[in-house]
Amino acid sequence: MKNQKIGFVGLGIMGIPMCRNLVKAGYELTVYDIRTEAVREAEAFGAKAAVNPGDAAKGNPVVITMLPNSPHVKTAVLGENGILEGTEPGAILIDMSSVSPLASKEISRDCEKKGVKMLDAPVSGGEPKAVDGTLSIMVGGEREIFDEVRDILLCMGSSAVYCGGAGAGNTTKLANQVVVALNIAACAEAFTLAKASGVDPGLVFDAVRGGLAGSTVMDAKVPMMIRGNVKPGFKIDLHIKDLLNAMDTGHGVGVPLPLTAQVMEMLQLLHNDGLGQADHSALIKFYEKLSGVSVVQEG
Ligand code: NAD
Hints:
Elements: E1 5-9, H1 15-24, E2 28-32, H2 36-44, E3 48-49, H3 53-57, E4 62-65, H4 70-78, H5 83-86, E5 92-95, H6 101-113, E6 117-120, E7 123-124, H7 126-132, E8 135-140, H8 143-156, E9 157-164, H9 168-196, H10 201-208, H11 216-227, H12 236-252, H13 258-275, H14 284-291
Parallel strand pairs: 1-2, 1-4, 2-3, 4-5, 5-6, 8-9
Antiparallel strand pairs: 7-8
Helix pairs in contact: 1-7, 4-6, 9-11, 9-12, 9-13, 9-14, 12-13
The chain binds nicotinamide-adenine-dinucleotide (NAD).
The site of nicotinamide-adenine-dinucleotide has 28 residues, from α4, β7 and α7.
């Protein structure tokens, strides 16, 4: 892209490090979040503050959103003082939030009416990869628009894969979230079994992580389970949202998702226990409840 100006809306766990990497790469950022402390944090590393999403979009050929779910994206893009009020025809909106593919298609159609092109470009990799700029980015929309903004995406990620038309990025992300949720549940179940049977979970981790059972999820989440660290990371409430979107989408195309439904209900129980803002690795607490066994190791 010739023009180096970007608007960015949504400065949470993911948005802040993504903005930091764009600033580092030399882009001029105008940012907005409903939390003023997040805007102040971004100002401290060189971003310019906006007073609403429309203001963040004004004069910028590219606007990025990184918000919790579709209602937040709809408000920020289509609402009063929203991005579509601030942008000019020809601008590109990249929604990097994880939302339902159906919502991506709807928002994309509304953008199109104003001459704004939209990509859905959700990410995987979590906070550590957002910090390193090594996210995996999955993209839906028009191929030429993807080609136009690929360099921007690669400031935040180590890969950006074009997956198809509008909504294809978020369909890919839902598949990703199903795998992650089921993998966390499998780890929680297996490590509780080991601990209850008298084997040190830390040694189990060392023994199996290099074998077929090993995974990026295991490497990232099992150490958190063993340390009893529930600081998000990725919040349980956000994973419930993704699994609900996956089930909705699955039902829409006639695919039952029995395992996804089960893990979603386990997370829902933890939400009811006040753990909605905890990291999704706190799923281990479901097994603590069932078995009375904790894998947490002191010291
Ligand atoms: P977060 O809750 O930390 O951040 C969301 C931010 O959006 C908050 O700062 C909030 O104040 C802001 N916000 C909400 N409504 C707004 C509005 N109308 N206008 C402006 N700002 C608004 O969430 P997060 O962890 O950064 O996740 C963001 C998205 O990325 C979600 O869709 C999530 O599923 C996805 N995601 C998260 C991770 C992760 O590990 N955290 C990984 C991959 C994908």
